[in-house]
Amino acid sequence: MMSLLQIPIETLTVFAAASIALAFAPGPDNIFVLTQSALHGRLAGLFVTIGLATGLLVHTIAVAFGVAAIFATSALAFTALKIVGAAYLLYLAWQAFRAGTTSIPEEGGAGIHSGKLYARGVIMNITNPKVAIFFLAFLPQFADPSRGSLTVQLIAFGAVFIVVTLLVFGSIAWFSGLLGEKLRASSRAQLILNRMAGLVFTGLALRLAIAER
């Protein structure tokens, strides 16, 4: 059994740097965190971030034990999962378009919906087959059979990626939540935020729907 201490520091440094760059690069997950934080406050964004990280844990385990390979080789499995993900995003878009100015809670009310927000993050992540395929392509690049169990190494690298995601997305949630506090003071701004969120969810759904392996 190996640990992070047995992975060369140079390898960990390169992997962490690549993970940070990927976490900051505009994509469905960090855009999702940004919009939810602006709409519902910093705590909401943090709960979504934890949900996304949980999804990444699922993908890490799937890659480590070979399950993710199914989505890389099976067109049916890939299509089925992306349809589920796109449908869920369209549902969120429909909710956002229907929402009025009173549907955006203050920061202190984010905890009331913590379970739902966490679930949104989990579902958003695990129903995106491109994340599974990305992990399948990304993590093994840093594993080395000469260092021992590949499964343990993949789980270790996945854990590092998850920690980086929590830190980067947590920062995004915090700062976009601060901006959201200013915007929530205006009823018109609240309505605009909801409409923008609806457009973002719709765009993410279309992007996922047309995604190819």
**CA-based gyration radius:** 18 Å
When the domains are counted, the total is: 1
Find the structural class using helix and strand composition: mainly alpha
Count of strand segments: 0
Characterization of this structure:
The protein has one domain. The protein is 76% helix and 0% strand. It has helices spanning 9-24, 28-40, 42-64, 68-73, 75-98, 114-126, 129-138, 150-183, 187-209. The protein is globular and about 60 Å long.
Secondary-structure blueprint of this entry?
Blueprint lengths: L8 H16 L3 H13 L1 H23 L3 H6 L1 H24 L15 H13 L2 H10 L11 H34 L3 H23 L4
Tags for this entry?
mainly alpha, 213 residues, globular
Brief digest:
The protein is mainly α and 213 residues long.
